[in-house]
Amino acid sequence: GESVGLHLPTLSVQEGDNSIINCAYSNSASDYFIWYKQESGKGPQFIIDIRSNMDKRQGQRVTVLLNKTVKHLSLQIAATQPGDSAVYFCAELNTGNQFYFGTGTSLTVIP
Amino acid sequence: GAGVSQSPRYKVAKRGQDVALRCDPISGHVSLFWYQQALGQGPEFLTYFQNEAQLDKSGLPSDRFFAERPEGSVSTLKIQRTQQEDSAVYLCASSWNRGGNSPLHFGNGTRLTVT
């Protein structure tokens, strides 16, 4: 079956440190992945995406790494800020044009 | 509008009542998706529209759930004879591309509580 899971359900980091959020996926045929940020009471907000023909993509303060060999995805946030506190989801596009979401990792930034 | 708009923001229904949840996607977006998000969980796919055509409804949990998008723009998710297990946040998302091969833009959801 298909599954998208996260290694750590919660993560606490000091303000200014870098954060790394991990995600495992099981469908080797998936070719498109997205990281979303969800704040309390809001819908998921797009952060960054990556396609399977890439292994790294950078945005503003964020980097996504894709390791297809071990079916692993990670989100790195540089110089984490209090506003980064949220739940982060990785989403995997399956062959049916549906995105499967993991359970999420709750990131808490300690001032 | 600037983003995906959902209404109502909150809905409380007594068990057995019917509810209708509305989604206004981003103008011009071809694809529209409905997701259900239980507390502490990730969103789960319910159904997908490409313009007015409902191409996938495999995620709808029962025949009490019905979705439509008659003019290829606004969509309504209807739940008949609500049950307590229907309590969740219902998220709508749209994308400009056909299928799911582009980022989904989500609304803030409708929180449904069935008492």
Q: What are the main properties of this structure?
A:
heterodimer; A: 111 residues; mainly beta; 6-stranded mixed sheet; 5-stranded antiparallel sheet; 0% helix; B: 115 residues; 4-stranded antiparallel sheet; globular
Mind explaining what this structure looks like?
The complex is a heterodimer of chains A (111) and B (115). Chain A has 111 residues and is an all-beta fold. Helices cover 0% and strands 54% of the residues of chain A. Chain A contains no helices and eleven strands. In chain A, strands 2, 4, 5, 9, 10 and 11 form a six-stranded mixed sheet that branches. A five-stranded antiparallel sheet of chain A has the order 1-3-8-7-6, with no helix packed on it. Chain B contains no helices and eleven strands. The termini of chain B are far apart. In chain B, 37% of the residues are buried. The mean pLDDT of chain B is 94. At the A-B interface, β4, β5, β9 and β10 of A face β5 and β10 of B.
What's the helix and strand layout?
The complex is a heterodimer of chains A (111) and B (115).
Chain A lengths: L3 E2 L4 E5 L4 E7 L6 E7 L6 E7 L4 E3 L3 E6 L4 E6 L8 E8 L5 E3 L3 E6 L1
Parallel strand pairs in A: 2-11
Antiparallel strand pairs in A: 1-3, 3-8, 4-5, 4-9, 6-7, 7-8, 9-10, 9-11
Chain B lengths: L4 E3 L2 E4 L5 E6 L6 E7 L6 E7 L2 E4 L8 E4 L6 E5 L8 E8 L9 E2 L3 E5 L1
Parallel strand pairs in B: 2-11
Antiparallel strand pairs in B: 1-3, 3-8, 4-5, 4-9, 5-6, 7-8, 9-10, 9-11
